[in-house]
Please model this.
Amino acid sequence: VTVDAVTPVCTIQIRTKQEITVVLNKDGKGRLTTAMVDDGTSSSCGAVKLTLSKCDFTCADIGERKITFTAMDAVGTKASTEVTIR
Model:
């Protein structure tokens, strides 16, 4: 008997919120979390780990900024998209 392991084809569906705004505090600092960006990202292979290319913002970041939102599932499948932060 020969058993061949078949690696499942995993797909990630990235969903982001339409409007993403970082509010700066009185010290001119703000933090973006994946929960502020994510709108139901999922994978056909289970849970996903979400990351952002930039989380901390200051007065120097005022205006629109583009960052990368990445999702990776348990088997290592990755998907990314660029989002605009205001």
User: Anything to note?
Assistant: The first strand starts at residue 12 and ends at 13. The helical segments are 34-37.
